[in-house]
Amino acid sequence: PLFPAMLLFHATRWFKDLNNNVRTFIARHLQPKTFNMNDHLVQQNQLGLGLFIIVRGTCSVLRTEEDQDEMKKITTLYPGHFLGIPSLVDPTDLTNAHVVADSEKVETVFFSHQEANVLLAKEPTFRIELKIERQRQSAITTNRRSLLTLDLGNMAGSGAGSGAGCGAGSGAGSGATDG
Length: 179
Fold this sequence. Notes:
Strand order of the largest sheet: 1-8-3-6-9
Structural class: alpha+beta
Radius of gyration: 15 Å
Helix content: 25-40%
Shape: globular
Number of strands: 9
Mean pLDDT: 75
Strand content: 25-35%
């Protein structure tokens, strides 16, 4: 999945806006990860692992409210969506939703927060870029409770809004919501 991931990577607004050294470092450290149907990419109230870019397949963003036992579907993620920006900013942030594979196989590429720390030591301005993207994604959530650890980025030109308050979207806003 690395070649399609690289195409998505370069087509995504946020990645295109990063300086060349940062883009090159991330591209060289992307790791392919495949998930089967119903596997969790992210579990609610767990530490974020890093940045995932969905290459093939779809995932559901689900959330369990504190006073309820059942999970509520927030949105669907498609190829080009990415999630995990907050774990790169602060690896101690807990995720606020589940991301579960909907397709038989979901192919992703992954950039760990450990690699992000190496990159931050080399390129301190990357932290500013991460914080700006995190704030941008928080601003487009529709729910007052921002689910920052599950931020998504968007493919350029893929819509005009993010998913229903989950910090989930894709580059300029995905418009791909289910709830």
